[in-house]
Amino acid sequence: MAYASLHDRLRGPIAAELKKELKIANTYALPRLEKVVVNVGINRSKMDRSELHEYIEQSLAAITGQKPVFTRSRKAISNFKTRKGLVVGAMVTLRGRHMEEFLDRLIGYILPRIRDFRGLPTKLDGHGNYAIGIRDHSIFPEVPLPDAKDIFGLQVQITTTAKNDEEAQALLKHIGMPFRPEKKDARGAASSPASA
Question: What domains can you pick out in the chain, each with its CATH number?
């Protein structure tokens, strides 16, 4: 059987399953993926080298297929040793087919490459959005193995059109997001791994 891309599954079997589970008859009222933002925070004390900024830019471009935008601080904060206009991060916003292809690779190939991977926490932000923190960018096969000093972490923020966390979680489960199984307590009731 040929592999169905996430683009096709979202419009076919996933939509049908969500209609049943959420009891929503209208296809256009179903929760959808809106965008995926890939962020890298740049720590001034460890990462304030122009070569490293260039490396982060090249790595993010290879991982996402788009050129990242460097974000700058809006104001000076003495405790963080930041001045106004200092580079504090890099980000890429993915939408449409690019977003679907990136999520397909992330779920099917990249997350299982994490050492001792036991699943993702089920906690969402309360507005139907989900964030995944990745400590080591070198798990992406598009990036050649870096020196230990050049390894950086990144955050993948998934934004959905869901009205609440339950709808968003149902959408992410059907996409194939590998959530941790819920632990059973002594009474047999399921408890969320985020609270345990």
Answer: 32-179 (3.30.1440.10)
